[in-house]
Amino acid sequence: MSEEQKQGRTVVVTGANRGIGRAIAERFVADGFRVAGIARSDDLPEGVFFAHADMTDTTSVDAAFTAIEEHQGPTEVLVANAGITKDTLLMRMTDEEFTDVVDVNLTGVFRCVRRATKGMIRKRTGRIIMISSVVGLYGSPGQVNYAATKSGLVGMARSITRELGARGITANVVAPGFIDTAMTAELPEATQEKYLASIPAGRFGATDEIADAVAFLADAGYVSGAVIPVDGGLGMGH
Which of 151, 197, 207, 238 is placed for a possible disulfide with 136 were both Cys, Cβ 3.0 to 4.6 Å? Predict the structure, then answer.
């Protein structure tokens, strides 16, 4: 894709203020796209337009997309990355701990996709990229709520593919494994070693490696309904 074409495309990244989302936003800025970040904090990378939104509130999400459209045009690439965790074992998990995670990680993505696709349908082109997790299909104790939402994104992406594929819109999922972020750095050394022993690559991934996969999907016009694992081989076969 030419630099001129990239400058004309608007990318929206949710949760662009930290971790994987921040790396993705930085990658798109570096590649010459017009980038907006939807987050609750305005601590975004340089060159990223800030739009505040609460993923659990439809009115808030719609207002964020309206602000982005007024600033830089209709969304052509949506990266749905924002998410939360409320980990605890199944028998201790409350209804609120389950539904709160669902409302952000799954329903929040739905809210964003529904709003973004309005412009995509009119232009007959669009890329929807959802950030899932290896635990969505691999499973993880203490993460029944989180894993359920990340698995749900696969069904969402594939249903969107069947609904909107003929309109030039793709929907795909990137499933990161253990990534080297501030969160993993805070884990006890023994826990890190346990995780590393289960990863064939023998190391944690880098946020830039997730951004690589997302950048590929932003250009790929004939890949849709796919789950792209970026996990060092941890979830092979899932």
Answer: 151
Residue-range definition of the domain harbouring residue 81:
3-224
pLDDT means per 10 residues, the chain with 238 residues, are 62 96 97 96 95 98 98 96 96 98 98 97 97 93 96 98 98 96 77 89 96 98 97 85
Tokens representing 107 are: 């329903």
Structure tokens at 90: 């199944």
And the tokens for 9?
């495309």
Total structural domains within the chain: 1
* Backbone phi and psi for residue 219, each to the nearest 5 degrees, phi listed first: -95, -25
Q: Please tell me the predicted confidence (pLDDT) of residue 1.
A: 54
Determine contact, residues 26/211, Cβ cutoff 8 Å: yes
What DSSP element (H or E) covers 4? helix 3-7
Q: Which of 138, 146, 195, 222 is catalytic?
A: 146
CATH number at residue 20: 3.40.50.720
* Residue 74 DSSP one-character state: S
146 catalytic per annotation: yes
Predicted local distance difference test score (pLDDT) of residue 182:
76
Q: How far apart are CA 219 and CA 226, in angstroms?
A: 14
Query: Which of 124, 25, 144 shows the shortest CA–CA distance to 78?
Result: 25
Q: How confident is the model at residue 238, as a pLDDT?
A: 62
| Inside any domain, residue 127 | yes
